[in-house]
Amino acid sequence: MTNQYGPMATAYFAFKSMIFFPSEAEALQGLITYLESNNPQSPLLVEANKFIDDASELEFDFNRMCIGPYKLLVAPYEGIYRSGNHVINTDETVEVADFYQQIGLVIDDKFNEPADFIGNELEFLYCVHALASEQRQANNLDAANELDAIADEFVNKHLGVWINPFCEGIKQHAQHDFWREFAVELQLFITKQLHE
């Protein structure tokens, strides 16, 4: 991972990579590189370095909390928090998918997670910020500003609405300090972007 798209895209890439690939060395190294550049005092950096040789325990812990096969300890879906029901594929899921379509993204039918899965929402924000950076580099400032507005609206209407209960759940149920610190770092990063 490079910083070619700027700090916002880099941050989203690091966070979403750990959600999608928690045991892959490349994802962990991307998070470490991001933290070294942007928050070298982070306790998450200390925890991440403990797993550099083998991150398989991180995947086991994340799956135990957020994937299953048993009862979800921490639901990784926006619709569950916003609808008040313990079901997926809610109206909120459709609203999220509509946002993705604004920039031409569609969830692949072969992918088993709905649009409002935490990893998908982080991926979307990575893509929006990367596209905005490309538009800025091409001196298309109106297009870049429009993409920034889409990202802001998405954080305020979607991810920012449910990031706190999601991260609090991770802090409560994680067996490894890594995930507790990851939740602290992610929660802080997203809440900094919320607008009153």
Instruction: Provide the succession of SSEs.
Output: HHHHHHHHH
Write down the overall mean pLDDT.
92
Q: What would you call the quaternary organization?
A: single chain
Q: Percentage of helical residues?
A: 55-70%
Total beta strand runs:
0
What's the end-to-end separation, in Å?
32 Å
Quick tags:
mainly alpha, 196 residues, 9 helices
Structure write-up:
This protein has 196 residues and is mainly alpha-helical. It is built from nine helices and no strands. The protein is globular, with a radius of gyration of 16 Å. 38% of the residues are buried.
Brief overview, please?
The protein is mostly helical. The protein is 67% helix and 0% strand.
Topology of this protein?
Blueprint: H1 7-20, H2 25-38, H3 43-49, H4 56-66, H5 78-83, H6 91-102, H7 118-137, H8 141-173, H9 177-191
Helix pairs in contact: 1-2, 1-7, 2-3, 3-9, 7-8, 8-9
